[in-house]
Specification:
With 477 residues, the chain is of the alpha/beta class. It is built from 19 helices and 18 strands. The longest helix has 16 residues. The structure holds adenosine-5'-diphosphate (ADP) and alpha-D-glucopyranose. The site of adenosine-5'-diphosphate has 18 residues, from helix 1, strand 13, strand 14 and helix 13.
Amino acid sequence: MKKILFVTSEAHPLIKTGGLADVSGSLPKALSELGEDVRIIMPNYQAINRTEEVRYLSTVYVNNYAVNILETRLPGTGVTVWLVDCPEFFNYPGNPYVDEHGKPWANGAERFALFCRVTVEVAMNRSWLDWKPDIVHCNDWQSGLVPALLSLEYSRPAIVFTIHNMAYQGIFPKATYLSLNLPGQLWNPHGIEFHDMLSFLKGGLVYSDRITTVSPTYAKEIQTAEFGYGLEGLLSYRKDFLSGIINGIDSDHWNPETDANIVQTFNHSTLNKKQLNKAALQEKVSLPVDKSIPVFGLISRLVEQKGIDLILECLPEMLTHPLQFVLLGSGNKGFEQRLHNFAESHPDKISITIGYDETLAHLIEAGADIFLMPSRFEPCGLNQIYSQRYGTIPIVRKTGGLADTVIDTVPETLNNNTATGLVFNEANAGTLMEAIKRSLILYNHSKTWKQLQINGMQKDYSWSKSAKQYMTLYSHL
Ligand code: ADP
Ligand code: GLC
């Protein structure tokens, strides 16, 4: 058994903005079920959904702040969560990255630098918790200073750093670096300096013993200029220490057989019951209830990464076909407005919900026929996996984890029952539209369609395999 400190900026169901929360809420649970001693550490944000008891454990002093360590449990699991409680930084409305008005925190660097410093105290067993991890498992830039600072410690734990998204690097001006009072040895081009700026992410990539990312394809992609954002050289240099482990899912939470958020539970042998969720979805989002019309779903942060512009380009042609489109998301205001305009002029075909709504997300997965995920890049992606579990056929671009988790429908994969979706290559509206048209043809072949649904629903997406890959990695350190 290894002792693992899992460092994250979000974990479902405590607080979530995207897939990192899904992973942080499910991988530690899977690891602990396999016998590892895992503790999660994260900031004590005001917005945390507190359903379990929270108790005070200790106080540590870092950088002139007295910071409390609080303990709670990941709801529905036995996993311990340590909350880094520093009200000066975290007791404000908003989410981990933006304030209540959607603006990135002006003191984002200070917030996460403090979180990293406290995590180092916990990792070095200097915070009165009487527990020293064997492995510190960091995630994304918010934890990037942990490996950097630990590298200066004698007898430190081993460090794994997981990249969930290279597009977010935690880059700040040199003046911010100076104001943080970080040890001078770290400031050099082989350290946390990136073109005279401070890069939190580089701290993770340079100083960790192992780097992982959330799919094998993305592990290769980030070693190229297109996906590496200037860090491809460093990643290629460290390629012997870099690997891709595909994300699993919380198969209790995303389970069409037991999901309390949907109207009718179902499985691969009762697929006809999925229709009831479709009708409920159509009703809920004010579209005509019609079981024969194909419903396309999309749930996403509305950002460049997700190919929302490709969807916007395709919508005029999509509208010439008999179909409905249901979107749930929030993000870029320009995307939100343009989507709204389409919905307003075609209320019988398009429904746009701007906001964050977990119940609706589950109903879309269960009620839609086809799920759109035309990402420009996608480290792993979870909705295409949830879709397959719910008998909803994903249309994805061949990149990152989408390429690793969706099998395109071609004669060979139809014959051997491995096809689970539609995959297109180029990030442009023309190829996306081709895939959409292909899906409409397949949708009308009900026997083939059903087979695709069954193929996807029968795949094992649980953490069991991937969690064991992390354990193997830990055991080599
Ligand atoms: P990313 O982490 O890049 O946003 P993922 O596919 O890994 O993408 O994970 C996104 C997660 O966030 C999924 O669980 C998805 O259902 C959820 N999600 C995204 N947008 C919303 C929303 N507006 N309402 C509810 N859930 C959402
Ligand atoms: C990131 C990625 C997404 C991935 C998630 C969890 O947010 O954008 O592809 O699934 O992290 O690893």
